[in-house]
Each structure stands twice: as C-alpha cells, then as structure tokens.
Amino acid sequence: MNAVHFLIPGDPETRTGGYRYDRRIMTGLAALGWRVELHRLSHAFPMPDAAALDQADAVLAALPGQALVVIDGLALGAMPAVAANHRNRLRLVALVHHPLALETGLTAGLRQQLYVSEREALCHARSVIVTSPSTVRALADYGISPEQCVVVVPGTDPAPLAEGSGSAELALLCVASLTPRKGHAVLFRALARIKDQPWRLRCAGSTDLDPVTAAELSILAEALGLSARIEFLGQLDEAALAHEYRRADIFVLPSYHEGYGMALAEALAHGLPIISTTAGAIPDTVPADAGLLISPGDEAALAEALLRVMTDPELRQRLAAGARVARQTLPDWPTTCAYFATALAVIPA
C-alpha cells in the first residue's frame, strides 16, 4: 500500500482555501487506497518559535527512512534548517499554495525574511506541488524551475445555479477570511463611492485568523456609513455557505493575491457574475467572459466595475452566462486527487 505523511500547521479544520485543499486531498488519497497519516504542527507557523521548530523536527525524526512526506508551505517555508536535517533521509514534498512573502501587510524586513527562508526551504524538497500555473511562475524567483513543479489545481464540487436575491437591492457576496490580503478595505471604500445604488454586501469568512484586521474592518464600515449595508457572517459551514451562494446576485473578491482562488471557482460553479482583480492566479481561474478584473488595490476601478455590473442587467447576464460555461470545465475533486496521487507516485525512493 502506498503511504504518505502530511505535516500541516494549526487546525486542519480551519475553513480557508488552503486548509480545505489539504483536507480534500488527504480524503481523496485515502479513497484511492493510500495510507494517509496527518501530523499537526504548531499554529505558530509561519512565524515559528523554537518550540514549534523543535516539534516539527521531532515529527520528521520519528518517521521511517524514505517516507513520503508532504509539508504544507505555510510550515515548510519557515523551517529551512529543519528540512535540511531530513532532506536525504526522507522524501520531502513541498505543497505551496502561494509564497509566504506574497502575503499582504508585511513589513519590508519580514517580507525579505520570509523570502530568504522559503527559498532555502524549497531547495530541500524533492518535488514541489503547486495549485496553479501562476505559482509556478512566482517560484521562478525562488530558484525553482517549472520542471521541478507539478500543478494540481483544486477541485470544485458541482453546485446548483444561483437563484439570486429576488430583491431590488442587489446581493453582493464576498467569501474570504478577514485578512489584509483579501482586500475588504478596498471593497468597502469602493462601495462608499456608490452609496446611491441599491446593494447589500454579505461577507462570509473567519474573523479569528486576524482579529485586528476584522476589528478594523468593522470600524471602517461604521466610519464610511455602511454598517447597515454590510453584514459580517463569520465562518460558515458548507450548508450555510452554499445558501449564501444561491441567494447572491454578484460575487466580489478584491484580493491582492490568490494562489488559485477556490471561492472564485465556487462562484463560477454557481453561475455567478464575478468582480475580482488581476492578482496572482485569478486571471487563470476566472475567464474574461465570466468576470470583470481590475488591478488590485485600485479603489476607483473597483467602484467603476461594481457600478457597471450593478446598473447593466445585460452585462450581468453575459457574465453569468460566461460563468455557466466555465463551470463545465472546472475539475472535480476525484480528478484532482488522482493527479496528486500520480505526482506522489513518481517520486523515487
């Protein structure tokens, strides 16, 4: 029986795209007959203290020689010395959702520190699995060639087409944890420019990953006079989130970077018109005929795109039609897991 060990920091049940990808891959590999063992690392990653690094080192030291080990990039990129200790004895595989240094809100010094750390750590992996061609391109700056990477894009579950709100007030949906990279502040300021339009925004996503940013966004909504029109739903389970997609009229995600954009794929699966950005993998995920994409951080351009889609029913219908076409091409999870299994199976002992 094929066997693989996954090292994942923090709570693997966390409802973000990266954690969901990891969970679905592990479940899919088990369904394919693999023996999958999960090892939880400290939640301190990607800023580990000495205890977190010692624990990661101990986990790897306890594994048998030539074991196949997939380490989520949230941890691997921050533990180059630990990876170096085990690179010859174990078959280390990096799973990179997006480079750590591309997170939004980092100081220049911290960004450089994470870049140097992840560049070194990736050198110790025998293979690098990424979730989009965009990340392949990004890793060129880390000394990783395209030939060293295997792209395994996330799967998307089949979904019913959105029914819409049925209201004169258009229902905007944003599905993203409240962190700086997701661009909520830009979205709120853009919406403040079009207060005269009939809209409501529902934000589904964890407020716990970055409580400071979550609090700042609540204050910003109040300061902009939008607190009655923006609802923070918090982290939703799958059934509640599916309900939000079904009742939405427009999906919006103004991210500064996405390694794939699983929420965008889910919006396509529901046939929703999309407003997002050109950052990272988003143009690969969202076809031009399914969404309007603007430069990340451009508040004026985002307001203009929102206004266009809100005030032009024919444009909304065209984008929704493009999404309905795109949903037919989205890979499912069994296919994604089979690709992942193939990528692991070819790594020599």
TrEMBL record:
Q: Which CDD domains match?
A: GT4_PimA-like (cd03801)
Q: Does the keyword Ribonucleoprotein apply?
A: no
Instruction: Tell me where in this chain the Glycosyltransferase subfamily 4-like N-terminal domain is found.
Output: 75-158
One BP annotation, GO = carbohydrate derivative metabolic process
Write down the Pfam families for this protein, in alphabetical order: Glyco_transf_4, Glycos_transf_1
Q: Which GO terms label this protein's molecular function in UniProt?
A: glycosyltransferase activity
Instruction: Please provide the record's keywords in A-Z order.
Output: Glycosyltransferase, Transferase
Q: Which organism is it from?
A: Candidatus Contendobacter odensis Run_B_J11
| InterPro entries with a match to the protein in the record | Glyco_trans_1, Glyco_trans_4-like_N
The keyword Zinc belongs to this UniProt entry's keyword annotation = no
Q: Which domain of life is it from?
A: Bacteria
Q: Where would one find coiled-coil regions in this protein? A: none
Protein name per UniProt = Glycosyl transferase group 1
The UniProt record lists the Glycosyl transferase family domain at 170-324
